[in-house]
Amino acid sequence: MQHGTMASYDQPYPRLFNLETCPSQRTLQVPKSTVATIIRKWKKFGTTKNLPRPGRPAKLSNQGRRALAREVSRNPRVTLTELQCILVEMGEPFRRSTIQAAFHQSGLYGRVARRKPLLSKRHITARLEFAKRHLEDSQTMRIKIIWFDETKIELFGLNTKCHVWRKPGTAHHLANTIPTVKHGGGSIMMWGCFLAAGMGRLVLIEGKMNAAKYTEILEENLLQSALDLRLWRRFTFQHDNDPKHTAKRTKEWLRRKSEHVLEWPSQSPDLNPIEHLWKELKMAVYRHSPSNLTELARICQEEWAKMSRNKCAKLVASFPRCLEAVIAAKGAATKY
């Protein structure tokens, strides 16, 4: 190992030789860390010569790796091209495969960014306070919550991958493609609710969904859904902060009915277990390949009725884990 004047020190050192007894840094003209490394090597292997190493030495230096890690830490969306420019300025190898290999060794991989609701500081604070406030709620309280939401279901709107067996050059043959239409081929709006005891009603929303339509749906379906599941009037009403939910007309209707409403943090679909039911409903519906909106609405009702009570109970039981995830993320987005 060539370390300036240290090349002549390939001989046994005194037993007590250490940084205190070795020649000074100025005398050797090498960094103190280099001297310490050589001493440790001698104590462990009894030599200062280069030892056999498995594999080819890395092309990218430790300095280059640290520079890449810093850049990715500052900007996770930085591209490989931009990272190549950084390495060129440092005089480091800049092949894309070299950069990718360095990231993989550090446990970093390029992945598609998840889409999450935009959260302001106010939203994050509200989410964190909500999670802390309701984490200790009893299971008895949670099973009395009726979860509400609306969703849009498109006729040809499920964005899923489909694998086919085909020969090279036949990618665009009719049998090997998925037909698409503009705007999903039309869509319907559905309102639904559920609680731990089972599925509530699913309603097709006809016309424009506003506060008047919303209170009409609640008038006809809220109490009846609770009665169907033998909850009577001992329940808590949950809905998000959509403008039609927080409208003066809706609040007045809830006040007249003396409904207990669960306060809800904005931009928090990850906390509402009904979102999982919507996803499962859409996947089940699209397996039937409905051909028109009337058939789409009919299949939605059929598949909604097939949802099991056990699934509903599990979703409600998972609510504390969602709250714990929000607390762990300090109010930021979670995996749910």
UniProtKB/TrEMBL annotation:
Limits of the Tc1-like transposase DDE domain: 145-295
Biological process according to GO: DNA integration; DNA transposition
A GO molecular function held by the record: DNA binding
Source species of the chain: Synaphobranchus kaupii (Kaup's arrowtooth eel)
PANTHER family cross-referenced by the UniProt entry: SI:DKEY-77F5.3, TRANSPOSABLE ELEMENT-RELATED
Domain Transposase Tc1-like intervals: 65-135
SUPFAM superfamilies: Homeodomain-like
InterPro entries, alphabetized: Homeodomain-like_sf, RNaseH_sf, Tc1-like_DDE_dom, Transpos_IS630-like, Transposase_5, Transposase_Tc1-like, WH-like_DNA-bd_sf
Superkingdom per UniProt: Eukaryota
Official protein name in the record: Transposase
